[in-house]
Design goal:
about 375 residues, alpha/beta, Rossmann fold, 2 domains, seven-stranded parallel beta sheet, 13 strands, about 45% helix
Length: about 375
């Protein structure tokens, strides 16, 4: 089959890259139309796909209009998209050209929209239900859905769809690159490293990480906090902790895994009251599973999103608003080598036996098999 991916980020998410890799391994043709809003960010897919078209604009309507013209001209069998705002375009093209639609439900759009509009209309649950029903109308017109694990059962657009699969955001068992592990082991040989990797904003624990590292510095003078990722707000490191905090805006995936593999603790302190996190289930947070692949014990906030940490005994779940509890969990891991080794081994074993892309790939193929017969 010939697939065209409509992508909503400057760089393809790792989940999307993995899906494309799975398609390419089976001989499918893949083309990307990428909405690039930041001209300073380079793409990460040129060597993976058969072709691509970059649309550089901050205006979504302009992106959709240019994509529409291009989709009318190019021959393809299936449109795949990962943004609900692209679905009306995909549905229109599907009707005009008789092509299939594969929707990657990699986030929870109703919560994003409900949170945004709740600033003006203080009815979160009403907004959530409204956007779910609106979304369901679009989802029913797709031919296949790859969904994340969600906590609720009222999303009829997914539940009642006949061709769907719940895809965990997990890495491949074969993703680790030993050369990068050795590179970072040498680079940071004199440091104890704590790390957060991923999109960064206040409700993902920014201030807590800075306060935490300041407290730990008193007992561990060679400790360093590394923050890697897409910073959604301007970050100014306070002078009291500037010397032991390092910001890295982006690392290629295999390079990031090398860095994670030589760290001592992976942090994932999300605010459980944030609407975007409240309805996500374990299996959604790629960050947790990426830490686990690297054998990195985890300190994460107590919420369904992170429950795999407790289930697999590979770290501690803590109260997001209790800095002392967060500190104690980190202190325990940094001073109890036996416990650290146990958590590290448990994390790696869980990836090898349960949570890996090789298992998820089988579910994707089942959806594709149905698509091809429609």
């Amino acid at each position: 089959m010939k697939f065209i991916f409509l992508n909503n980020t400057n760089r393809l998410p790792v989940r999307t890259l993995k899906i494309i890799e799975s398609l390419k391994k089976r001989g499918h043709w893949v083309f990307i139309i990428n909405w690039q809003r930041n001209e300073n960010e380079y793409s990460n897919y040129e060597n993976l796909v058969d072709g691509f078209r970059i649309v550089k604009t901050r205006n979504i309507n302009l992106f959709l209009m240019k994509s529409f013209r291009f989709l009318l001209k190019i021959n393809h069998d299936c449109i795949s998209c990962n943004d609900v705002r692209f679905l009306p375009l995909a549905i229109l093209i599907s009707k005009l050209k008789k092509v299939k639609i594969l929707y990657d439900y990699k986030e929870y759009p109703p919560a994003t929209f409900a949170q945004k509009f709740s600033k003006y209309f203080k009815k979160e649950k009403f907004l959530l239900n409204f956007f779910e029903k609106l979304e369901a109308i679009l989802l029913f017109q797709t031919h296949g859905i790859l969904s994340i694990p969600l906590l609720f059962s009222q999303n009829n657009g997914i539940i009642q769809h006949k061709n769907k699969a719940i895809i965990y955001n997990v890495p491949s068992k074969r993703d680790l690159d030993e050369s990068w592990i050795e590179y970072y082991r040498v680079k940071y040989k004199n440091y104890i490293l704590l790390i957060y990797a991923g999109t960064m904003f206040e409700d993902k624990g920014l201030t807590k990480y800075l306060n935490l590292i300041s407290m730990l510095k008193k007992n561990f003078p060679n400790i360093k906090l590394i923050l890697v990722g897409d910073f959604k707000q301007r970050i100014t490191i306070p002078s009291y902790c500037r010397e032991y905090v390092e910001l890295i805006s982006y690392l290629p995936y295999h390079q990031l895994l090398g860095l994670l593999s030589i760290c001592k603790i992976g942090l994932a302190l999300f605010n459980p009251n944030n609407l975007k996190f409240k309805y996500l289930n374990s299996g959604t947070s790629r960050k947790i599973f990426t830490y686990m692949l690297c054998g990195l014990p985890i300190v994460a906030s107590k919420m369904p999103l992170n429950k795999v940490v407790e289930e697999e005994q590979c770290g501690f779940l803590v109260n997001y608003n209790n800095l002392k509890e967060i500190y104690n969990a980190c202190f325990k891991l940094l001073t109890d080598e036996k416990l650290w080794s146990k958590f590290s081994a448990n994390a790696k074993n869980a990836i090898l036996t349960k949570y890996n892309w090789e298992k998820e790939e089988e579910k994707i193929l089942n959806v594709l098999n149905v698509l091809e017969k429609l």
